[in-house]
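Lecture 7 notes: from sequence to structure.
We start with the chain below.
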Amino acid sequence: MWIDSHCHLDAAEFAPDRDAVVARARAAGVDMLVLPAVAAFDFDAVRELAHQHRFAYALGIHPLYVMQAGEQDLRRLDQLLGQSPRDPRLVAIGEIGLDFFAPGLDAGRQQFFYLEQLKLARKHQLPVILHVRRSADLLLKGLRATPVSGGIAHAFNGSEQQAAMFIQQGFKLGFGGTLTFERSQQIRRLAQTAPASALVLETDSPDMPPEWLYQTAAQRAELGTQQGSALVSSRNEPAELPRIAQSLANLRGWTLDQTAAITSANVHAALPRLSACLLACLP
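Predicted structure tokens for the same chain:
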């Protein structure tokens, strides 16, 4: 069984055919998705999708949404996490972190929400799903000040030294569509050299398209003038995970079966509640 450790199934891009997206994922052998929230406004939608389709989910406030967030959102998150022992599908806090790539974000506000959510992770004994974009060192500083029970460093693109420090903190490293580009030399090197026990797979659907779905800005502009079916063709989705996994298998010299077994076991290690979720998610 494949596990997509990071999929935004609630995204608007999936609104026209969400059920079909889930059906294609299952037909491809991707039987479990982890659905991270990005803001308080989608807590309910993510939870409902996880229950509807028998998936797992995480709740958190993404750094790109902290400008619209308030302390009342942290209180609501705290309340919902307090109910998590009764919901086996809630497996982590996420997506949280820091982003120093996107313009116009208040660094101090990002750090406030990041550190407060780390405190909630400790309080509720949950792992975290981290957004890491030009922010690895400050994320690690926060983890040293407020250690948590591990988790996943989503879409990891740091140095080998930073990777080692996240692994020492109990984190797995998320690899997705970027791995399929031959020019992504740093990511591909990390995927080859990191301990096998540190690797998990993700799609970040509908984002982070693999090489065969990628469109240039000019192509996206041209598609925007065409019918919706053309736009859907450039969208990433969880059914692509096994093909993304083939790139990892090639880099590591593994079979696809080995890749599925190793990466799935690693997701279970990163998100311990996932095993209970799988039992609860049986039809």
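Points to note: The CA atoms of residues 40 and 76 lie 8 Å apart. The two ends are 16 Å apart (CA to CA).
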